[in-house]
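Section 5.1 Outputs to date
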Amino acid sequence: MRKRRKDSEGPAATWLNTYSDMVTLLLCFFVMLYTFSNLDVQKFQSVMASFQGGMGILDGGNLIDIPTVRNQEEIDLEKLKSALEDYAVSSNLQSEITVSIDERGLIIRFMDRVLFDPGKADLKPDAKEILNAVAEMLQREEFKDKVIKVEGHADTTPVSPKDGFATNWELSTTRATNVLRYLVEEKGIEGGRISASGYSYYKPIAPNDTKENKAKNRRVDIVILKSSYEKNEPK
């Protein structure tokens, strides 16, 4: 009798292990279906990350890597980045205009000399042609509601009072504001979705120790914010 009971316990335990694995895989499958049906990629990644950490999805004893799913916003920003880079190359401005994507969104970076004369904040005639092309892209259907920030930056070289600016604060802010005004007043960007700010020399991208590095820090950035950062903007 004892032997018969012991023999029956072995197969039952094996069957339960197999059943548990099957249920785990089915649960994973239905979580994926549910998430994709709701088009909520962040929810999918969050659920799958916690699912891996809490239960473990095994493949030969190892966790299965869940591929990163790109949402439509990321795809649109990548397309805009590519279009802007093509424009910079075709206009021979690739050393004056750079485009990148970071955690905040897409950054269109203009070296100061492409938009302004040294120590000045008035847009150069050629700068308006560049901003015309950028504005046309920002008015596309997929970007027409995106929040835009225009950010002015300077180096540590003191400004000349004869240029009408007390410090680099005023210079960087006025430059950013003039870019904003052109986009709003001349190109029809909706004023409620764009703002301007100046940072003087307090957000450098290179040490202010050489002429070349200072030139990198004199810039205006147009930032198209990701939706996750829009909530931090005033309504």
